[in-house]
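Reviewer 2 asked us to include a model.

Predict the structure of this chain.
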Amino acid sequence: MIEPGIKTTKRLAVIPARGGSKRIPNKNVKDFCGSPMITHILRTASKSNLFQKIHVSTEDESIREVASNCGFPPDFPRPIQLADDHTPIMPVLQYVAEEHKNRGETFDEIWLLYACAPLITAEDLHGAAHLFQQHQGEHPVLSVTEFPVPI
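Predicted model (structure tokens):
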């Protein structure tokens, strides 16, 4: 059920999760508090009931398997040329949007949710939706928080 006050909008959540992390190998599927890291954001996105589709953008078989086992099999793989250390996020989002459009699926909003953001709650997502709606979708919403350095 969508929270009262949030208009019905067709939203796509894109969770980019490539397999080539250098600092923390396999970070997207590493155990975090009892389950693979990526499953936390998948469950949160699902629990929010804000998204008509949740797509994990990955080229990695183990990430695809974890997402599928959690109930979110990717509709299509990410091309390997969009999965290197130097690819910015916008081409990945554009690719996902175009692939869905080619499949006859269009969305009013496309949200970027990071695989390694296990502390985001459904309430946080609802707050972002309210904020975005308040500004008639004219301003992007980005969550930021302070941490002591080094973390």
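Residues 89-102 form the longest helix (14 residues). The chain has a mean pLDDT of 91. We have added this to the supplementary material.
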